[in-house]
Amino acid sequence: MTDINEPTPTATPKRADARRNEQTLLDAAAALFVTSGVEVPVRDIAAKAGVGTGTIYRHFPTRADLIIAVYRHQVEGCAEAGPALLSSSASPYAALRQWTGLFVDFLTTKHGLAAVLRTDNDEFKALHAYFLGRLVPVCTALLSAAVEAGEVRSDIEAQELMRGVGSLCIGASDPHYNARRMVDLLINGLRHG
Amino acid sequence: MTDINEPTPTATPKRADARRNEQTLLDAAAALFVTSGVEVPVRDIAAKAGVGTGTIYRHFPTRADLIIAVYRHQVEGCAEAGPALLSSSASPYAALRQWTGLFVDFLTTKHGLAAVLRTDNDEFKALHAYFLGRLVPVCTALLSAAVEAGEVRSDIEAQELMRGVGSLCIGASDPHYNARRMVDLLINGLRHG
Amino acid sequence: MTDINEPTPTATPKRADARRNEQTLLDAAAALFVTSGVEVPVRDIAAKAGVGTGTIYRHFPTRADLIIAVYRHQVEGCAEAGPALLSSSASPYAALRQWTGLFVDFLTTKHGLAAVLRTDNDEFKALHAYFLGRLVPVCTALLSAAVEAGEVRSDIEAQELMRGVGSLCIGASDPHYNARRMVDLLINGLRHG
Amino acid sequence: MTDINEPTPTATPKRADARRNEQTLLDAAAALFVTSGVEVPVRDIAAKAGVGTGTIYRHFPTRADLIIAVYRHQVEGCAEAGPALLSSSASPYAALRQWTGLFVDFLTTKHGLAAVLRTDNDEFKALHAYFLGRLVPVCTALLSAAVEAGEVRSDIEAQELMRGVGSLCIGASDPHYNARRMVDLLINGLRHG
DNA sequence: GATGAATGAGGCTTCATTCAT
DNA sequence: AATGAATGAAGCCTCATTCAT
């Protein structure tokens, strides 16, 4: 910071051990999120990662930061799949349906993630913003194409649709409930009216 | 016992003050459920009602008992509306759609109730059971009638549908989200095989 | 007590229902003391007796009063057995040993009573006083006779001995412990000086 | 790590402040156990030690852990005294008597400890187990030696004897009661039969 | 940078006791 | 007299977060 030869003028590059730690933390958190939900105690994550709790706070000041980091790769993958599907599918509606399926697959394998996305708890505001900010534009493109192709009604917005899909994925672990079927119904419902 | 006008011959009627207190409690709880969700601390409810915490435990041994009591009237009303709509509506499907609308109206005006219904927290098991036990049969009747009339697909069960509807009502207070529209989509999606 | 004339000229005689209630209470308390110890919640006793808690407090202002009342008959019986044994036994020491046996029988069949007798909790002061006041003189007579007969050492006081016996009866329900054997040891130890 | 003076190479040594705190806690607990018994509220101990309640739970997850830690030194001392007395005393019986005296000294200076040892409260199971596990073997050795020397009767087991001794130490603070004298009686009583 | 010890607010629940009905 | 509703003090325990080492 005070060195005139500073290699990266803006950000100091992370030390190797810090980077290693960060990955360890992400792995531990991901594992615990699956088994205990994203509200698992910080100490449990620290213990699983073999670090102190302070280390978590250094790398991820808020829980939302940690959750975002854990799922960033998959969210990115989902976002990138949108345009790809649009160009490879038989119709925009088919692409929309397939893309929605990917999103459902992602959410339903993350115990508790869907629930937290729908919470209006301040703690998760940033998480919320990240998810929608990254995925709404993708969904909008798919939806618009389907509308323009005359396949679906035009009065639904992508953001709302995504929230609906997200909501339907809450509690997907219940054996008496099948989120995918419900989402299929929802997407099917886009066709009339 | 011999008096034809005897209101409650067997059970001792509740003392007037106790009944008053119970109502005060229900009102306080209902108000706090709206502003702070159904997980609001017991002490807050007691404070708002102007009673001691023990009084709450006397009337409602578990939190689920309290929540059920708060919403009982409306759940009963919703349950009773099912058969009525079936006989008064133009078609079973129309009745189903209207009934679903009532359910959505109920849920979306109870901040946090839909969320708690989807929680798998043990604390709410009884609540869960009460809601489903009371409403699933009603929904089943409506759905079956619509299936028999050939209006909707036959592979969806009432319980699943209700959970879907319930899920879509989570976070309905968000201005960017309209639970009713999403539920309409879902019900719409029931048509077609 | 059996006097045909007014038994208590000053106090208003108890109403029949009050007397009946009192007995019901004693029975209920006795039963619960056996199964749950003498510290069982007041409400449990009231419930078992089918009365309100207030009724208990009216009849027995403190818990000690209730305990004393419950055991009065047996304590009296034990007290009266002392002189009887002294005159019927082969020797004062034999009488002392037998009498101690009666006391042990009494205590060990009252789950928790021995413990509460040894507590220095203020709540039980009166209980304490009653037991000792009634039984110490009896024990003193037995012990003195044995001392005078040259059968046991003379430096032990009845009160102390009774407390020792009482202590040894604590936890008598434990299968690895036999209060009677320990008390035998203690009494045996009185010989020699 | 490469320092030849490294004190504990494998286990991370406790931080100095933690160790200090632990001692402070033990001291505070010991003091309060004396004045208020071992069931004194956790918050009181924390307050006396000048720490938060969480600190107590960190160091001693259960109350039994805390009690054991408080008395560990003295229990160990008592346990170690057994064999020593056996080899230095004039006779096994004399050793037994002396050892019992040590045990009594220990218990009678710990207000409420004897009582809790006799409680069948689950909370104290571990405490119980620790005491008996550590001291019964010692007592067994002493008792067996005395039996083999023909000094005492052979039908009493160490565990039972220890419980008896423990029981006699309950309420030792009462000026009208002398636990030591009662225990002497008990040990004396071992000689016949 | 990393650690993990300490903090202490915050929630739940039980019961002895009082007192309006 | 009897009732039992209401009170509210007490205790327990968990965890997010800070900060000395």
Q: Tell me the overall shape of chain A.
A: elongated
CATH architecture of the largest domain in chain A: Orthogonal Bundle
Low-confidence stretches of chain A: 1-9
Report the span from N to C terminus of chain A: 61 Å
- The biggest beta sheet of chain A, please? none
- Biggest chain-to-chain interface with counts: A-B, 32 and 31 residues
In CATH, what is the class of the largest domain in chain A?
Answer: Mainly Alpha
C-alpha Rg of chain A (nearest Å): 19 Å
Number of domains of chain A: 2
Name the structural class of chain A: mainly alpha
Individual helix count of chain A: 9
Task: State the oligomer.
Answer: homotetramer
Keywords (chains A, B, C, D): DNA-binding, Plasmid, Transcription, Transcription regulation
Domain HTH tetR-type (chains A, B, C, D): 19-78
Pfam family, one (chains A, B, C, D): TetR_C_43
Organism (chains A, B, C, D): Deinococcus aetherius
Quick take:
Chains A, B, C, D: Keywords: DNA-binding, Plasmid, Transcription, Transcription regulation. 4 copies of one chain form a homotetramer. With 193 residues, the first copy, chain A, is mostly helical.
